[in-house]
Known about the structure:
By secondary structure, this protein is of the alpha+beta class. Helix content is 38%, strand content 26%. The chain contains 10 helices and 9 strands. A hairpin with a 6-residue loop joins β2 (62-67) and β3. The longest helix has 17 residues, at 137-153.
Amino acid sequence: MPETPPHPLTLDGSSVLHQMFRFDWPAWRRAGTADRERALSEVTALLGPLEKASEQGHPNQSAVFALLGHKGDLLFVHYRDTIENLARIERDIARTEFGAYLQPQHSYLSIVELGLYESSSKLYAQLASEGIEPYSDQWRQRVEETIARQSAAMSSRLYPAIPETKYLCFYPMDKKRGEHVNWYTVPMANRARMMQDHGLIGRRFAGTVKQVISGSIGLDDWEWGVDLYADNPGVFKQLIYEMRFDEASALYGLFGAFFVGVRLPVADVGNWLALSRNS
């Protein structure tokens, strides 16, 4: 029979798009007062209703953050049920008058993901004990049943609301695939142990940081995207620093650029855009 799959099953939830922009301040200053007011009114009408979670179904929200540093001025975060819905909000923003002042600097596409290391190991062992051939129709049916059951139980984590915190830290990451250190050649049981230890650190910060992990293999340049939401930005430093010492990160973790933003409620975008220094 074919060997048991080396990968754990994963659950997929919300589609996520991060958009990083530089704002065209010179063009904004040149615009007339009526043009600026019209652009602001239009984008506020678009994003205002999306700032709050949907009353029915999944939250499907958008949020705006003012970026710090040279990597951009504004960060838009969108959680939607489908990638098609992400494409729709991306288009809707681009075709507003406000969109003409947004200069894309970076973006990231991913899907909220939960890995099922423990459940996968148990299921694979159970199917093997029953003599069910991997990837057979019966095997696939049992896998789909497990995924459906787990997805229903973890719906709130798979389709999260955007936390109402003041700060966001976003970064992409990979697992190393080097000649001597390769995460994907480590036996699944060992990977499961390392990820459990890794998760224990995160759980110690559960009261101060809300973490959303999204998978991006085949969707963007890195393998995962990480959103950390908190009211104290110093917690980002503490959490990530401690995680660097665990085996999964110390030996196998690779990290991309970090983006840190301050929550910018849509109602306050006008103040952020004001040309007066007193605003």
